[in-house]
Amino acid sequence: MLRQFGLFSAVGVVGFLVDSSVLYTVLVLADTNPYAGRLFSYLAAATTTWALNRRFTFSQRRSGDPQKEWAAFLAVNLVGGAVNYLVYSSIIYTFSSQGLFPLLGVACGSLSGLVINFSLSKAWVFRAKPVCDSSNE
Fold first, then answer.
1. Based on CB atoms within 10 Å of each CB, which residue in 33, 41, 56, 70 is the most buried?
2. From CA 35, how far away is CA 102, in angstroms rounded?
């Protein structure tokens, strides 16, 4: 389980990079506010982390239907995502929506949802019987 948590955390770092990159892209290119922009960036990051966790962290426990698994991952991770977004929004509201504060908000929000998302993902999304033949992918 410690190995899985380590992999889940490493995938989370990639998710953080995707989240931050998409957030700053929509803030600059779409001239959106940091609250709405975070919805786009969170969806991009959650999709990325699902794919990487499916491939690496829980490769022996993935289900046969990737679309249902993705939807389950997004649904289950809404709990951690809500905590993540509340922490992010609190930082933006308290400090500023300019400069590095959106990045700080994403980082703190991501850390706050990490354990919740790992626990729920392991228990509800990636709970299928172990895959015997990895050539199905």
1. 41
2. 9
Provide the strand spans (E) within 1-137: none
Q: What is the pLDDT of residues 23-63, one digit of tens each?
A: 989 999 998 888 899 889 989 999 999 999 999 999 888 77
**Would you tell me the crossing angle of helices 101-120 and 34-52 to the nearest 10 degrees?**
40
Distance, CA of 17 to CA of 95 (rounded, Å): 22
CB under 8 Å to 126, separation ≥6 — which residues?
Answer: 53, 54, 57, 58, 61, 62, 63, 69
Residue 136: DSSP 8-state: G
d(CA 80, CA 116): 5
Element (H, E) at 94: helix 78-94
Q: Which of 44, 1, 46, 52 is nearest to 22 (CA)?
A: 44
